[in-house]
Each structure stands twice: as C-alpha cells, then as structure tokens.
Amino acid sequence: RVMSRLRRSEHQHQMPTLTIERQSEPPAGVTHVSLSFSLLPSLSDVPLPLKWVTQECVCEILTFFAGSRKFFRSEIRGKAGVACLKGNVIEGAKQILNLGNIPKFEGVVVEAVIGEMLRLPSTEHQQVYYHATMIELCKLQSTIHPPLGAAINYLFDFLPRMQQELSDRLLDWLSFHFSHFDFKWLWSDWSRVSDMPHHALQRRFVHNLLER
Fold first, then answer.
1. Where are the domains positioned within the chain?
2. % of the chain beyond a pLDDT of 90
3. What is the DSSP code string of the chain?
C-alpha cells in the first residue's frame, strides 16, 4: 500500500546508478574469514559464533607456536621470550586447553585441529606438527579422547568417498597417533572390514595401518 502511494505521488525521484568496483584486496581492517570445517554431528547444538571464535583461536595458537608470527602485532612478536616458543607443542596445547569456556569444548578443539590437518590443497604447517599437538592434547586432558574417537570413526566411515590425498594424511596421522598410545583402540568397531573384499578401501586402510 505504501509503495502504491509512492508511485502515484506527483514528486518522482530518479535514483542514480551505483557502480561497485571490484577490489583485488580487502579494505584495511577487514580480515579473511575461513570456511568452517564440520565433522562431529554432536556439535550441531553449539552456538555457531562461539564455535567459530573458539576454532579461530585454536588456529591462531597453532600458527603462533609453529613460529609463523607475521600475522601478529609487533608488540606481541617483540615480547621477551617469544622466539623460544617456536615449536613448543606442549605449551601450545596448554594454551589451546585454556580457551575452554563453551559447551562441548573438547569436540570443538578436535574438529579445529583435524580441520587444519586435512586442509586442502595443503596445510599451513607440517603434518607432524598437528600430529604432535593432538597427542599432547590427549595427554593433558583425558576428556579429549571421546570426541577424538568419534571423529576418527566418522573419518573411517567416510574413507570410500575421501580423496586419496586425505586418506593418505589420515593413515599417516593414525599410525603416528596409535603408536604413541600402544595401539589402544576399539578394534572391534572396525572388525567388519575382515568380511570386505581385499581391494576394499577400508580393509586396505586397516591393513596398512597395522603394518606401519
């Protein structure tokens, strides 16, 4: 009704045409927002803003302790003792666990680290850095184990549809991770692979995992 009255008004205004120029770089102060990696259905009830902020903090901590400091303010980079923190995986894991203040925090952390580990086309840091971080997280906080186990099972179920690059990374990670925990795992959950053909991806995956 309002629009119809405006059309009948004696005073008509011609709106100018707006041209928005394409920018090759974002304006100053605007940061890139990365895509969110979702793996655990149990996190669906975690408020997205809280989940996103926490996972971004996890990624920043990983970047900081990996020694990539160019994204941080100069007053942080120049602090005394910062240089010696490069590669300190234990301290990095402690700082990640100190973030905990949201529901299902451990699952959010697991999803963030695995998301970075499986990032395509390449990871920000060396694969072994993520492997070592996950091990330290498990050693420091036992409540990491349940969501990590769920994540591993989801990835295992997804193997037939997974890109070869990702399945290779998954194999490298699990062989490294399981070896640090005496290969303790609920192998009965994967016993079904023994009934699969020898060429089945999941059967070959378990075979290669146990051979490493």
1. 35-184+192-205
2. 58
3. -HHHHHHH-S---PPPPP-PPP-SSPPTTPPPPPPPP---GGGTTS-HHHHHHHHHHHHHHHHHHHT--TTS-HHHHTSTTSGGGTT-HHHHHHHHHTT--STTHHHHHHHHHHHHHT-SS--SS-HHHHHHHHHHHHHH-GGGHHHHHHHHHHHHHTGGGS-HHHHHHHHHHHHHHHHTTTT-S-GGGGGGGGGS-TT-HHHHHHHHHHH-
Q: How far apart are the first and last CA of the chain?
A: 73
Mean per-residue pLDDT of the chain: 83
Once rounded to an integer, what is the mean pLDDT over residues 74-103?
70
Domain range 35-184+192-205, CATH class: mainly alpha
Tokens, residue 171: 């194999």
* Rounded Cα distance, 52 and 109, in Å: 11
Please state, in angstroms and rounded to a whole number, the distance separating the CA atoms of residues 109 and 59. 10
- How buried is 58 (Cβ within 10 angstroms: 0-12 exposed, 13-18 middle, 19+ buried)? buried
pTM for the complete prediction?
A: 0.76
Q: Which residue has the tokens 């498990």?
A: 138
